[in-house]
Design goal:
4 helices, 0% strand
Length: 133
């Protein structure tokens, strides 16, 4: 149980870092700072890999504690009221950070895709739907 609790705390800290990196990425994209974008992308990739490893470990630990098809609700039920309330609050906060990171990642992806599309139009012109005869 301790490993699972520590993993939630570690993920919360990592998601705060990820949210900061996603804001930096957005700023770098708006300012067209390619080198900075590359550095930030590498940091994000490393952090996401770490988060995925911890997620898999959390599932493994929850499975050991509650059996197949674990859920955090099952894990919560194993705790006394005070630690349960604390873990539920921490888990809810983590879920909110995950949603915020997904939204920021989507926003950044859309911005970068739009910038790429505009650059392609500038470099190669508009595609003609109807070619002159």
């Amino acid at each position: 149980m301790t490993g699972l609790l520590q993993g939630v705390a570690d993920d919360s800290a990592a998601y705060r870092t990820l949210l900061g990196l996603l804001e930096e990425q957005f700023d770098a994209a708006i300012r067209h700072h390619q080198e900075r974008l590359g550095r930030i992308a590498a940091e994000i990739a490393g952090l996401v890999d770490t988060l995925e490893v911890r997620r898999a470990l959390r599932v493994e630990l929850a499975t050991r504690l509650t059996g197949p098809n674990p859920s955090m609700a099952q894990v919560f039920s194993l705790l006394r009221p005070e630690p349960r309330a604390r873990l539920e609050a921490d888990w809810h906060a983590l879920e909110q950070m995950v949603l915020a990171a997904k939204a920021a990642g989507k926003r950044n992806g859309e911005l970068l895709a739009e910038q790429f599309t505009i650059m392609q139009r500038v470099l190669h012109g508009e595609n003609q739907t109807y070619e002159p005869a």
